[in-house]
Amino acid sequence: MFTKNPSSTLRMSKRNFLLAAALSLPLLAGIPTASFAQEATPKKEIGQSITINGYQLEVESNNKSSSADELNSGRLGKLSTSDVVDWYKFTPNSSGSVTVELSGVPNSIPYRVAVTKDPSRSGFLDISSTTGASRTVTFIAEAGTTYYFHVDSYDNYDTSGNYYLIKRL
Which UniProt keywords are listed (predicted)? Predict the structure, then answer.
């Protein structure tokens, strides 16, 4: 890498100088070099850090209850085809009334939200209407119990659209 010249100074070859400079760029840009050796960030973590208008972006794949996104205060989601279902979950710290609102959907698009304690069984605690500016489910939640919310396009209505899912305690 270094060569000694007749005047006793160390000199770096041009190739090695360019290589050292390229390896130093991340440090000069303020990027820790250890970040290049880390594993890729899972999609769930990336999506949870993205917010639009104060709502966390839904993270795919949440098409099954086993991969449901956490429903903190609210989510921005999208149903891309008639057979897509989005799942969310919430475990309250205290008992009381909970309302979840599905909004931002045009009146003509029959999206709905439903809530259940056990997604492996048929039947919901409450199902919203399929039309209107605001579609809500309300139920009495028990502390420590996980509740699952299911957003779908009623009767396989074929459309693509965004929605907001908002939780109110």
Answer: Signal
Short-list 87, 164, 98, 92, CA closest to 120: 87
| pTM for the structure as a whole | 0.68
CA-wise closest residue to 61 among 83, 81, 82, 84:
84
Domain count, the chain: 1
If we measure between CA atoms, which residue out of 107, 98, 53 comes closest to residue 77? 53
Measured CA distances, 147 to 70, 78, 130, 144 (Å): 10, 21, 21, 10
- Domain limits at 73? 43-168
Q: How sure is the predictor about 162, in pLDDT bands with cuts at 50, 70 and 90?
A: confident
